[in-house]
């Protein structure tokens, strides 16, 4: 009796769906089976049936559910992307320590805070100016779309730029090297012409070269020179090699951030590299860049432009590089999955840059 009541209640909970046991799968005439076993089988078959119907009738979860406020906020803040402020500064400072034994913690902290403010300007102003063209109309994590105020976002971005530039100028004055101010100005100028009118060079497919220059040779070299203490630091092959490697990993982040927005870019005439190449050829470019990153590392080590500890530790990040290549190659056509590619590139950027820093410190302390 109790089993019959349970089965009736279960039928009620299934929203009127009819439960039937397959006589072929479990014949009623099977006298060796207990009544309890037959009812349990009915439950099992009903569960499988309802699960199958649910999968066939229900649309994908992402199509019927909005992102939570917390998810939107996380995507809007782009916290992992701020590694592009930390890694060039750390690599430049570690190179200066290797070359001269000099390290100024106060200078490093000032430059870090200032760089974070400049990156915040880049992110906020990018959203604000993209709102003009409509390229971000379907981008739910756009700060403009979240706040509903393009003007407010733009004002906040330039306030961050003003405070960031003040800190960078202070650091340049402390270093007493005109090259520091010149290189930092060049890096910020790359960011401006990348996204701000009337230039908007990112819409002409020049964003990636500008990114390489800004975060690689310009910023990393400026941070290296900012650690000078009365003596002018020389521009060495170690510095040029390290800055180029940092530039490659940073550029990979930007390149992979375009995979999921090709259709929106095309709609407003934004000719990003992936609009020109398509996702399949774009995935081959990612493979080429990752391969070039490790090939360049080995070449620099062979030429003694990079310390061997740098090469050894950076080679330990090969699984992360392979993860980037495999993920992009397998999912470049999937708009939803490929969104994560830039975060895999951030992991590579952090891992590779940290390995460079640790390798230089190990050589300097030896």
Protein architecture, described:
This protein has 366 residues and is an all-alpha fold. The chain has two domains: 2-57, no CATH class; 79-365, Farnesyl Diphosphate Synthase (Orthogonal Bundle). 73% of the residues lie in helices and 0% in strands. It is built from 16 helices and no strands. The chain is globular and about 55 Å long. The model is unreliable at 1-65 (pLDDT under 50).
Provide a compact summary of the structure:
This protein has 366 residues and is mostly helical. It has helices at residues 2-13, 35-57, 61-64, 69-77, 83-100, 105-133, 143-147, 150-175, 178-195, 207-225, 237-256, 262-267, 273-302, 308-315, 318-331, 341-365.
**Which structural class best describes the helix and strand composition?**
mainly alpha
| Terminal CA distance | 81 Å
Query: What is the CA-based Rg, rounded?
Result: 28 Å
Number of helices: 16
For the report, how would you describe the main beta sheet?
A: none
* Topology as a string of helices (H) and strands (E): HHHHHHHHHHHHHHHH
* CATH topology descriptor of the largest domain: Farnesyl Diphosphate Synthase
What percent of residues are in strands? under 5%
The CATH C-level class name of the largest domain:
Mainly Alpha
Helix share, percent: over 70%
Number of domains: 2
């Amino acid at each position: 009796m109790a089993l019959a009541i349970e089965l009736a209640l279960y039928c009620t909970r299934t929203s009127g769906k009819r439960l039937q046991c397959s006589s072929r799968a479990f014949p009623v005439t099977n006298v060796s089976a207990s009544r309890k076993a037959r009812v349990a089988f009915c439950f099992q078959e009903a569960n499988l049936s309802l699960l199958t119907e649910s999968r066939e009738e229900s649309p994908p979860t992402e199509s019927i559910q909005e992102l939570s406020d917390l998810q939107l906020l996380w995507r809007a803040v782009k916290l992992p992307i701020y590694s592009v402020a930390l890694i060039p500064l750390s690599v430049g400072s570690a190179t200066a320590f290797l070359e001269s034994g000099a390290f100024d913690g106060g200078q490093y902290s000032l430059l870090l805070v200032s760089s974070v403010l400049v990156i915040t300007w880049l992110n906020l102003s990018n959203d604000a100016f993209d709102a003009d063209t409509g390229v971000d109309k379907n981008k739910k994590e756009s700060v403009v779309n979240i706040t509903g105020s393009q003007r407010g976002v733009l004002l906040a971005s330039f306030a961050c730029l003003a405070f960031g530039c003040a800190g960078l100028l202070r650091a340049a004055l402390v270093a007493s090297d005109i090259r520091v101010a010149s290189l930092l100005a060049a890096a910020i100028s790359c960011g401006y012409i990348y996204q701000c009118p009337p230039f908007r060079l990112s819409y002409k497919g020049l964003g990636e070269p500008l990114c390489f220059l800004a975060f690689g040779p310009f910023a990393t070299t400026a941070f290296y020179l900012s650690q000078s203490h009365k003596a002018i630091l020389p521009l060495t092959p170690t510095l040029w090699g390290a800055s180029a490697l940092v530039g490659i990993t940073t550029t990979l982040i930007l390149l992979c951030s375009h995979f999921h927005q090709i259709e929106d870019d095309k709609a407003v005439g934004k000719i990003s590299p992936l609009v020109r190449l398509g996702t399949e050829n774009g995935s081959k470019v990612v493979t080429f860049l990752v391969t070039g990153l490790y090939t360049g590392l080995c070449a620099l080590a062979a030429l003694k432009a990079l310390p061997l500890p740098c090469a050894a530790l950076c080679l330990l990040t090969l699984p992360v590089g392979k993860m980037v290549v495999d993920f992009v190659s397998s999912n470049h056509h999937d708009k939803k999955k490929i969104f994560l590619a830039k975060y895999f590139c951030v992991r590579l950027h952090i891992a590779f840059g940290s390995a460079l820093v640790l390798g230089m410190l190990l050589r300097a302390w030896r």
